[in-house]
Amino acid sequence: MGFKTDAIHAGQEPDPTTGAVTIPIYQTSTYVQEGLGKHKGFEYARTQNPTRTALEKNMAVLEAGCAGYAFASGMAAITALTQLLLKQDDHAVCTENVYGGTFRLFDTIVKNYGVEFTYVDTSNLGDLERAIRPNTRMVFVETPTNPLMVITDVRAVCDLAHRHNCRVVVDNTFMSPYFQRPLDLGADIVVHSTTKYLNGHSDSIGGVAVLKRKDDAARLEFIQNAAGAILSPFDSWLVLRGIKTLAVRMEGHNANGMAIAKYLAGRKDVQRVYYPGLANHTGHNLAKKQMSGFGGMIAFDLGSLDRAKRFLEAVKLCSFGESLGGVETLISHPATMTHASVPPEERARMGITDGLVRISVGIEDVEDLIADLQRAFEA
Ligand SMILES: *Cc1c(COP(=O)(O)O)cnc(C)c1O
């Protein structure tokens, strides 16, 4: 089936008791058993819940994996993956400037269990190869990165990592499976914050991991139940509902993203625009090859903190706030928000200047968005 058909139907049969076209929210903690050892495959709702199962099956199809598991947040999903892949004395390599919460998890929690991490620019294969050690077990890639949209060649990273017997995990939150399918490019595991594009309506926190290997899937299923950070039935239902319109929403984010990136690139008072759809973006050719769209995330440099501050306080339709991937446009200031904990010299080295502004472009009428930006530039 095509992607749009799968998004709407995969993992979802009409409800067997009523024929309800939409999978119900099975808001239950347990299930009545018919006798000793006799049940319908459902015993306790941490272990199995039909609403969550529908989402997991749906995501496994959309990401072309063998199984998916849904967690209470993107961070809970990534935590479970560290439990799957890493143990004491192991080493992992991670994209530098990954999502701040991922860095915090690795650097302040997983490290305490005797696991070492090395952060490199994974878009540079030489740097990646030099970082791999005999005990490296995981290469964690985020592509494109936030907020500068650095693109890593997933296929090349997988070829290299697999030669060294490491699993490759790709955080695909920014592109969603509609624009990028990491397992098809060779990755072993793909992870999402469903909070962002998959749910798409800024009204749920969740995460999902999809796996290629059956042995990894069996172990992650065990971890999901044993550690217990499951996604609730209601949130599972919300994400399933969101995914039904993922394709049309992503097309909208992409079209608006391209139009706004071009508008920004045409302004003399914008020093630089970071959007993989622009031909002068460093990762443009690679993005064209491994993604089928460029998405709705843009960063641009206004040159100074003062100008960024005035701009952010002047927008009206674009809401000033953290997060991304919702239908509404959100605008933020990486240096003082998502990257506030990164030391200033390190921020400067990566290009995250005080004048940098990030937009998660929504699917409003693009003329209205551009008019709002224009007003903020003139403020
Ligand atoms: C938001 C986000 C996460 C964390 O997800 P939560 O649902 O907030 O826990 C991980 N990776 C990326 C790229 C994100 O944007």
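qc> DSSP finds 14 helices and twelve strands in the chain.
qc> done
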